[in-house]
Write a structure and sequence with these properties.
Elements: E1 17-20, E2 23-26, H1 35-59, H2 66-70, H3 95-116, H4 121-152, H5 154-159, H6 170-211, H7 229-237, H8 244-251, H9 253-256, H10 258-265
Antiparallel strand pairs: 1-2
Helix pairs in contact: 1-3, 1-10, 3-4, 3-10, 4-6, 4-10, 6-7, 7-8
């Protein structure tokens, strides 16, 4: 009877396990939040943001009466209005409004997370702090302060920018306008980058002191979602504050501000 040779180089299934005190215990896998938790976080953040948006609209003179809304053209609804007509200005979303929208979004996401994933509340509290302080309050403060500084010295800054003789040509006029707008674009970009970095440092410091979290949180792509309004700010600094372009961009800000709440609602402890 022949005996088949044993191949000692064959990978064994024991390699698929992480040894814990000599026992073959499967390595823990972090599958992330379930679809139920994600859907709840998205719904909660949207409801929270919408509640804040309704409060802002009412404060700025827009009616929340269903009958009035029904009889108002859709283009004149608070969230869609981009032109100043009939003596009514479009909805303004600036520093105070951004903070209010973000807070509503985070509160909604946090509550939804509490109802569907209560075992990870510490992680959600950390993420809430990160989103409000690091991704919204600190960056917006940086950009807002830069905007006020620019407005104070706008004429002096524009006066030092090179200009060409236009000879009545529209293209050269646009070139001159672009040249004068460059400082505003550059200052906004620098302020936003510095604000995001400072916000990340602040939240990492607080997380370490309050929650004992040693691992620092890195900046993620989703952290840039709340800053769409800064593009609107850049356009404003270029002298187009009441333009249809700026107001159109502003309409998208509330939707982007649902991202912070969504991140809070689905946050979980790392495995």
């Amino acid at each position: 009877m022949n005996i088949t040779a044993v191949n000692f180089n064959t990978p064994q299934r024991f390699n698929q396990f992480q040894s814990v005190e000599g026992l073959g215990v499967p390595k823990a896998q972090n599958k992330g939040p379930s679809k139920k938790i994600k859907y709840a976080a998205a719904t909660g953040s949207f409801i929270g943001m919408s509640t804040a948006l309704a409060h802002i609209a009412k404060r700025q003179g827009f009616s929340l009466n269903p009958k009035v809304i029904k009889n108002t053209p859709i283009k004149d609804w608070a969230i869609f209005k981009i032109k100043n007509n009939n003596g009514k200005a479009p909805l303004m979303i600036e520093e105070k409004e951004i903070l209010e929208l973000a807070t509503g979004s985070v509160a909604g996401g946090w509550l939804a997370g509490a109802m569907t994933d209560s075992k990870n509340m510490k992680a959600k509290c950390r993420e809430a702090l990160t989103q409000i302080a690091g991704n919204v309050a600190v960056p917006v403060a940086f950009v807002g302060a830069t905007a006020r500084l620019y407005n104070k010295y706008e004429n002096q800054i524009k006066s030092v920018m090179p200009q060409v003789k236009t000879h009545g040509k529209k293209s050269l006029k646009m070139l001159n306008k672009f040249s004068q707008g460059l400082p505003a674009i550059a200052m906004t970009g620098v302020a936003l980058a510095a604000g995001i970095k400072a916000g990340s440092a602040v939240t990492n410091f607080i997380n370490e002191k309050l929650f004992g979290q040693k691992k620092h949180r890195d900046i993620k792509a989703s952290d840039f979602a709340p800053h769409v309004d800064d593009l609107c700010l850049a356009i404003t600094l270029m002298g187009s504050k009441d333009s249809a372009i700026a107001n159109t961009i502003t309409r998208s800000v509330p939707l982007f501000l649902t991202v912070p709440g969504y991140q809070v609602g689905k946050a979980q402890e790392p495995v």
